[in-house]
Write a structure and sequence with these properties.
Blueprint: E1 4-7, H1 9-16, H2 20-32, E2 43-45, E3 53-57, E4 60-66, E5 70-78, H3 79-82
Parallel strand pairs: 1-5
Antiparallel strand pairs: 2-3, 3-4, 4-5
Length: 85
Amino acid sequence: MVYKVLLDKPADKSLGKLNSKIKEDILVACTELEHFSEKTRNTKKLKHPFVGFRRRVGKYRILFLVNKKNIEIYKIGLRKDIYKN
C-alpha cells in the first residue's frame, strides 16, 4: 500500500532549521515512508506516553502517525531532544 506523507507545521518548521545534508537525508526517509511497513528498517513503534512510530535517521528521529491512507509526521528532531515535552 502506498501512503500519502503529510508534514505538520511544527515538523516542517524543525526541518527548515536543519542543514542541507541532514535535511536531504530526512526527506529521503520521509519519501521512503510512502511504502511503510512496521518491519521497515530503522522504524519502531513508540511506547507510552508517545503514540505512533519513529524512524531513525542518524542522530535524528522522525515521529509519525499512521492512518488508513496517510502518514502524518508530527515531530522531527535530535534524539536527545525529541522525547522531551
